[in-house]
Automatic annotation (TrEMBL):
Residues 6-44, 54-85 form the GEX2 N-terminal Ig-like domain. This is GEX2 N-terminal Ig-like domain-containing protein. It comes from Trifolium pratense. SUPFAM superfamilies: E set domains. Pfam families: Ig_GEX2_N (PF23616). It comes from the Eukaryota.
Amino acid sequence: GNVYPSVCVASWKGVKYEFEAGSKATIMVLLKDAFGNGISKTRQLKYPIYLILVIQFIVTKAGNFSLRIEGGNQTLNGSPLPLKVNPGVIDVTKCVAKLKIEHHVCHLSSKMEIFIHQLDQYGNLVSGLYPFDAEVVERDTNLTIPIADLHFQEVEAGNSVIFLWQLGTRKLHINNIRRQA
């Protein structure tokens, strides 16, 4: 018979509905006719082979969602499906650092704060505290001075702050993120 979307059944493959950003999600749709019978590829076999529509897509936006599946302006049975997407791994090239200073002019040994918005490759905030390696670079000579005593603090999910002291006419260079075990 013909496929009737309102009686077709949609579900997650493996009943898994939680994914990491960048991973592949798979939905299975069991095709059914108007009487709720599975659509068979052939009726000559003792055990018919039912048709299943497979939908795959890459999830990129983190959050909790309801995924509504429709066919022919009709919502499929089992829809909406819950969908939870967690941020991917932190991507240092996507992280955004913002400098906060007490005054517009920094003096030797003045306190500075750098807020780091920790993001994955899709721009989702990544929770957790990820210490950075940092060094100070002399503007004129490009010589580097490593900074050993940075103080890290997570101020909210996905946003960390580094406290450091200004070192005259030098600039801060933030290197790789070190994952804590």
